[in-house]
Amino acid sequence: MGGYAVFLAPIAGIIASDFWLVKKREFDIPALYDPYGRYRYYLGFNWRAMVAFLFAVGPNLPGLALSITPSIVISDGAANLYTFDWLYGFVVSIFLYTSLSFIFPAKETLVETTIYGLDDSSQLSEKQHPSAPNYEKDFGNVDAVNVAQDVDYPDKK
User: Fold this and answer.
1) Between vectors from CA 89 to CA 83 and to CA 90, what angle results, nearest 5°?
2) Integer Cα distance of 98 and 23 in angstroms
């Protein structure tokens, strides 16, 4: 089960850095579901993500091979690197993907504000958008409901 981290940590790092650092939480949501939309990159392939993935996975492969077949011989450094494969893959993929995205930006994928849909309200801010929750009373992410206003009590007539 630990071998999955060799592959999943770089994927998580690339997704996190793309969302938080590169695109700064601004996406074209309908384009995420369009196979020919702005997030298709070149022939459906984001080379920045693939380079970051390969550089984060590659050094952990000897350790993965050792965990599957203990009879093979690898260096102590490779065996020790595999012991913290998740941390290594996550950090290296974030660093590489973010660096490559700033040096070679995919400008067609960057948007100023989040585009929520194809309707006229797609350019509204998050608080102005009709699908955004309306919290008249600020209780965090719990909807404020005043039950006493909506209920007719028969004994109060």
Assistant:
1) 115
2) 10
Contact between 89 and 60 under an 8 Å Cβ cutoff? The reply is yes
For the residues of 5-70, what is the DSSP string, one character each? Answer: HHHHHHHHHHHHHIIIIISTT--BHHHHT-TTSGGGTBTTB-HHHHHHHHHHHGGGHHHHHHHH-T
Query: Looking at the DSSP assignment, which residues form a beta bridge with residue 115?
Result: 28
pTM: 0.73
State residue 109's pLDDT score: 92
Number of H helices, E strands in the chain: 7, 0
Phi/psi of residue 45, nearest 5 degrees: -130, 120
* Domain locations along the chain: 4-126
Q: Assign 60 a pLDDT band (cuts: 50, 70, 90).
A: very high
